[in-house]
Amino acid sequence: xxxxxLGPAGFGGSHVSVELIQRGYxxxxxxxxxxxLGKHDHYEPVVLDITxxxxxxxxxxxxxxxxxxxxxxxxYGPTVYKTFVETLRRITIAAKHSNLEYFVTIGGTGSLDxxxxxxxxxxxxxxxxxxxxxxxxxxxxxxxxxxxERIGLxxxxxxxxxxxxxxxxxxxxxxxxxxxxxxxxxxETAVIEGPEPIPDIPLAARASFMFFDGNTTFPxxxxxxxxxxxxxxxxxxxxxHFDSVPLVPEPEQRGSDNEYDGRLLGISVADLAVAIADxxxxxxxxxxxxSAVAELPGEQERWDSYAKLP
Length: 310
Description:
Elements: E1 2-6, H1 11-22, E2 26-31, E3 43-47, H2 55-62, E4 67-70, H3 80-96, E5 102-106, H4 127-138, H5 141-151, H6 156-173, H7 178-193, H8 200-208, E6 220-223, E7 228-230, E8 239-242, E9 266-268, H9 269-282, E10 289-293
Parallel strand pairs: 1-2, 1-4, 2-3, 4-5, 5-6, 6-10, 7-9
Antiparallel strand pairs: 8-10
Domain NAD(P)-binding: 9-135
InterPro entries: NAD(P)-bd_dom, NAD(P)-bd_dom_sf, Polyketide_Oxido-like
GO molecular function: oxidoreductase activity, acting on the CH-NH group of donors, NAD or NADP as acceptor
């Protein structure tokens, strides 16, 4: 089987690419800098700016493979929402006209539903969910360090995230200072009461699911990572959830004012790559919106965000 990975050197795409190559598949990596993944006899880098590629250019690439995995994420900027949605629109049209065996797109947690208690709402609709997500990220060294890497180590936003994590650690340890309390209050008030606390990429990923929902014109599957999607070890084991945000049944932190605190499940990027590779082999979730969760044994450690070929 020959598989094209859009965004092969990124967070999700690099791990999927390495997982597939280790299984013996031929991988075509498509991006502006596909060589960043490394070199391998089963890896073919194709230089193409996905954000500006025409539908015809994408079809030319897709017709040479059996499966396409879309792990593309545009760089942050003032037009990231438009870039994300318009690029995926072209990718989807190209996939429909390329006679693929399977098309896999990696979405975001924001497109997952909040369940029967909150009908017609997704995670990206809820400030309460987003606050629990911010808290869970701060309580995880792996998640915090990954976000620092993405945002830029030493940047004002990165420093603010680290300061919030330190304050949360002090709170959980019972040693919270007045400065820590102020940091927590300011950060969390901005999420609950501030303007537009949810970034454009989760919103764009949610909107992009509408290209697929109910679409029977080509074989696709849409995987949305759970809330805690972080660097970490490959365990090779996961459980699958459909349509809704994976949560533990009851809050672990009794007395919390947030119904999602202590309930957010997760998976390492390496284990989600395993789940995606398994899916292109079995195709059991065609036409489905799903997520996967696993144990997170390395949550309080720092891990490389990006996989590399040896």
